[in-house]
Write a structure and sequence with these properties.
The protein is of the alpha+beta class. The protein folds into two domains: about 325 residues, no CATH class; about 80 residues. The strands form two sheets. Strands 3-2-1-7-6 form a five-stranded antiparallel beta sheet, covered by helices on one side. β1 and β2 form a beta hairpin. The longest helix is centred in the last third of the chain and has 84 residues.
Length: about 425
């Protein structure tokens, strides 16, 4: 039974590739003593030089998702700002409803044009950083394969101190993908196009998933400078540290060993949201802001306004009683002086009544701001829950689509062996 060794220049594909053509496998600079009849060296498990970069989907999912999230945050904040302005224009200038609207707006939107400008600058920094990192990784991320070795070499054939590789050999990429060999040129072209198309769909799905989550974040407080800064810090730090533990990382080698089902790390996401919220609150607290500070401030303002309302009502009641008493005493025969005093007392009572009404409105608005602030905080929690649900659904689809790629590549590898008429793979 014959064995088929792999020569330099054989087609290779990666399950994470977005480049729609197969690449070629080569060898680092060395003196090759084991040559085939075509004068091409037989490759060993340490020969992992690839002719180009596969243009990995992983950094594209990461950084395109970041851009989509930023756009979503802006869109969500604009929609909510417009809705709040519309509602504010239709409710009374004072009272509970107006206070609630104002309280919600203060809780989830930048308080001033300066704050909004800071948010825009932070967003620009994220976009610029992500673009630079994506451009670098698309050109260099596959360099990591040079440090890997082929799995499933042939122990019985040692070439220059290393095992030879066979058609069944593969490289488990550090980014989660699988680099595999396809001898037949037609099958290799088909595999590369199929993988690139499927990965483009997965990148697109990640884009929309992050955009929807960004909209929810923008509508529930993610557009404030502090929230943007915290998000930018962790996003850029995590991205520059690598993708092995990132949300976009899927270990496809495990799919070869076991029929692994999708699992979403809800606990990890809750911890992540809690961490971000705690940091945002800590930063705002030092600035004299934050949910707790604002709630305490609004509650204090409401208590103070209730005290003013009580005093204003007492003054009005006292003035009303005095005016009513004077009015009861006057008659047609009363002097002009008595009539003048009664009229003055009535005017004073009316003035105190207006002050009391104004104080009541201010108390109601202060109460509304307190309630609105709590609602705004609750919206943030609800938004986090909604984002986790959306993220889990999109991640599950991406997982299943990735599993389909791996299975189809396995089938193409099987067809390749049959087409190449391999009698024995050397096992």
């Amino acid at each position: 039974m014959s064995k088929q060794y792999i020569k330099m220049g054989t087609n290779v594909v990666c399950t994470n590739m977005t480049f729609p053509s197969p690449l070629r496998i080569g060898t680092p600079s060395r003196i090759c003593t084991a040559l085939t009849k075509e004068d091409k060296p037989v490759l060993r498990i340490v020969d992992t030089k690839i002719s180009n970069c596969f243009e990995c989907r992983v950094p594209q999912m990461k950084w395109e998702g970041v851009r989509a999230s930023i756009l979503g945050i802006i869109a969500g904040a604009l929609i909510v700002a417009g809705a709040i302005a519309l509602i504010a224009a239709t409710v009374a200038t004072g009272g509970l409803a107006a206070g609630i609207v104002a309280g919600i707006g203060a809780a989830i939107l930048p308080e001033s044009l300066a704050a909004l400008t800071v948010s825009v600058y932070i967003a620009d920094a994220i976009l610029i950083g992500s673009k630079l990192k994506l451009g670098y990784d698309l050109k260099h991320l596959c360099d990591a394969s040079l440090e890997a070795t082929w799995d499933m070499g042939l122990p019985s054939t040692i070439i220059e101190g290393e095992q030879a590789i066979l058609s069944s050999s593969f490289i488990p990429c550090p980014q989660g993908g699988i680099i595999t060999l396809i001898i037949d040129d037609g099958l290799a072209e088909h595999a590369a196009c199929m993988i690139a198309d499927r990965n483009s769909e997965i990148i697109n799905k990640e884009w929309w998933g992050q955009f929807y989550q960004g909209m929810i974040s923008g509508a529930t407080g993610g557009a404030t400078p502090t929230a943007m800064a915290v998000s930018a810090f962790f996003t850029l730090i995590d991205g520059f540290k690598g993708y092995a533990k990132d949300d976009v990382y899927i270990d496809q080698s495990e799919m070869l060993d076991q029929d692994k089902e999708f699992q979403y790390d809800y606990l990890g996401k809750v911890k992540e949201e809690g961490r971000d919220t705690a940091i945002e609150e800590g930063i705002d607290y030092k600035k004299g802001e934050g949910t707790y500070k604002d709630a305490k401030k609004h509650m204090g303002a409401y208590k103070e306004s209730k005290q003013k309302e009580t005093k204003a009502i007492e003054k009005y009641q006292k003035a009303e009683g005095k005016a009513a008493g004077r009015e009861q005493k006057i008659s047609n025969s009363s002097s002009d002086k008595m009539k003048g005093r009664a009229k003055g007392a009535r005017q004073k009572a009316n003035h105190q009544e207006n002050l009391a009404k104004q104080a009541t409105q201010e108390a109601q608005k202060a109460k509304g701001k307190f309630i609105g602030g709590l609602i705004g905080f609750g919206m943030g929690i609800a938004g986090s829950a909604a984002n986790m649900f959306i993220d889990s659904k999109f991640k599950e689809e991406e997982f299943n689509m990735t599993r389909d790629i791996v299975r189809e590549v396995q089938q193409i590898n099987s067809d390749d062996k049959n087409k190449s008429k391999i009698v024995s793979d050397g096992k």
